[in-house]
Amino acid sequence: xxLYFIPFACSLATRIAVEEAELExxxxxxxxxxxxxxxxPFSAVSPMEYVPAxxxxxxxxxxxxxxxxxxxxxxxxxxxxxxxxTEARYQMMRWLNFVATEVHKGVFSPLMTSKSSQGARDxxxxxxxxxxxxxxxxxxxxxxxxxxxxxxxxxxxAVLNWCEHAGVPIKTWPVLEAWRAKMRTRPxxxxxxxxxxxxxxxx
Length: 203
Ligand SMILES: N[C@@H](CCC(=O)N[C@@H](CS)C(=O)NCC(=O)O)C(=O)O
Prior knowledge:
Elements: E1 2-5, H1 12-21, E2 26-29, E3 53-56, E4 59-62, H2 64-74, H3 87-112, H4 118-139, H5 151-160, H6 163-166, H7 174-183, H8 187-202
Helix pairs in contact: 1-2, 1-5, 1-8, 3-4, 3-5, 4-7
The structure holds glutathione (GSH).
């Protein structure tokens, strides 16, 4: 399995998942504007040219929620996701989708591009408040978005890592700040971040 990534992008969640479940994967760094090590343009793997992307045999998957669910299904049951068809599984899917659409794309994307007007930034920050309030209520008094660690937590951590860069005052949500700090001590997260930090600094 090949996993295409950009250091500290949302694809960090896939590395955390692989580390957590001790799976085998080859990580291939995507350098914007450059060909892949095998000589192909990244668009040959992922037509939208975004990470994460997963390639295995003849199959290519994109979209973080799908790639993460695929990885979760390779792992032993319960390590990265609850068993299929259980209520907990649907709760995990709910949070994965919430992080992808309402948090990552809905608020962090407009906050992290220099192309956003001040009006667009203000709007995104306003939306962020409601969404962070909800996450904060969900994580108050519990370690994970659902009853046990799942790929939804890995995705949320990858996104919360961007707060400082995006100008999001995470201190306003002490539950989220504490959750992020604790997650950053989880061995799989420590290993994933330690691998990507030098790549981020070199980029
Ligand atoms: N719809 C995609 C969006 C993924 C996405 O936005 N990826 C960003 C990194 S977080 C990316 O690769 N952007 C292209 C770039 O930075 O060059 C998904 O849900 O996975």
